[in-house]
Design goal:
This protein is mostly helical. About 75% of the residues lie in helices and about 5% in strands. It has six helices and two strands; from the N terminus they run αβααααβα. It has helices at about 1-20, 30-45, 45-55, 55-60, 65-80, 90-110, and strands at about 25, 85. It has a two-stranded antiparallel sheet with strand order 1-2. Helix 1 (about 1-20) packs across helix 2 and helix 2 crosses helix 5. The protein starts with a helix and ends with a helix. Keywords: Membrane, Transmembrane, Transmembrane helix. This is Phage holin family protein. InterPro entries: Phage_holin_4_2. It comes from Flavobacterium zubiriense. It holds the Pfam family Phage_holin_4_2.
């Protein structure tokens, strides 16, 4: 049940952020739902591999390179999901930061660990 709530919350946040942020376009709630699912799967399967390969860079930048990896995950999701469009890499980077912070705040309010 927690997984379904997390996916729905992420989909709502994706739709909400895309509404206020220029450069991010989401066609519908169904598209936002697919974006949430694909982001979850990419974070489970692809992100650990990217983190492992970029460990020296991440070490030297004191972890800030993880933000770049999050932006790359958003760009990859843009290429996979039709109806979800991010204009530039910096837009994807800002979108990933806003999405992560808002997910943390919602999870704090909902009491989800």
């Amino acid at each position: 049940m927690k997984l379904i709530v997390r996916v729905l919350v992420t989909a709502i946040l994706v739709l909400l952020i895309s509404h206020f942020m220029t450069g991010v376009h989401v066609a519908s709630f169904t598209t936002a739902l697919f974006v949430a699912i694909v982001l979850g799967l990419l974070n489970i399967f692809v992100k650990p591999i990217l983190v492992l390969f970029t460990l020296p860079i991440t070490f030297f930048t004191l972890g800030l390179f993880l933000l770049v990896i999050n932006g790359l995950i958003i760009i990859l999701c843009d290429n996979i999901v039709g109806g979800f469009d991010v204009d530039t890499f910096f837009t994807a980077l800002l979108f990933s930061i806003i999405l992560s912070v808002s997910q943390s705040l919602v999870n704090l309010v909902l009491g989800d660990k």
